[in-house]
Amino acid sequence: MSIPTSYLLALSAMLFIIGAVGVLTRRNTIVIFMSIELMLNSANLAFITFARAFESLTGQVMVFFVIAVAAAEVAVGLALIVTIFKSKRSIDIDQISDLRG
Amino acid sequence: MTQELILFFILAAVAIVTAISMLVSKNSIYAVMFLVLNFVTVAVLYLLLNAAFIAMVQVTVYAGAIMVLFLFVIMLLGAEKAEKGKDLPWQGPLAILLGGALVLELGYIIFSQQRGLLPGIEAVSESFGSPASIGDVLFNRYLVPFEVTSILLLVAMVGAIILTRDEREEKS
Fold first, then answer.
1. pTM of the predicted model as reported, rounded to 2 decimal places
2. What is the extent of the structural domain holding A19?
């Protein structure tokens, strides 16, 4: 009658992989950050799918927490990017290599 | 083919196309816009899956607040086109190779291995995923994690302020 669970999980996996490839290929720190958001979002989709399939609200509550944690993470991460930009005048990930041993 | 399945395929196509467009767009502003479109599409999928409250949270918090924060930072830094200089030559092909390997692995697990174990999506009651039912679970079973989340948000707020504070003003 409706969407098979495996299709939804496959979509979630596709979005996660696109996000992972984004983290691996892009060098703009902000775009890398957005790729991480995309991966979090795909995990949320899997949570919602399982919540629906198992008819348990715990999955949806977990998504609520993931969104709250993502908001906190973005606030701190963007503050870090602004601070790095202030000292380096660039947000290219290749320029941020001061900790190289 | 039912209506829901057709709707799912349209939404899935839009989600994947916007995600890939986000990846390949040179201008960060366009990337943010594609990501907003992706989040809204996923929110519609949540609506299909009886998660109305989460869909609204997705639109307001993710597509609204978080992505606007990204836009602010990009415009503040003037970092629309930050990528100059040369990529590592093997980086792109290697990433696509690893991504392809992950596609195969996940496809294998989802479509062959666990086929019998995955429950199908059956009809549920109208109230499943409504704000009232979510609130009931959130404030009874998950009250302590909920409170911890509020502390986490406070810590993030303080952290962001401390990180971006202008230290020259303090010395004078």
1. 0.89
2. 5-94
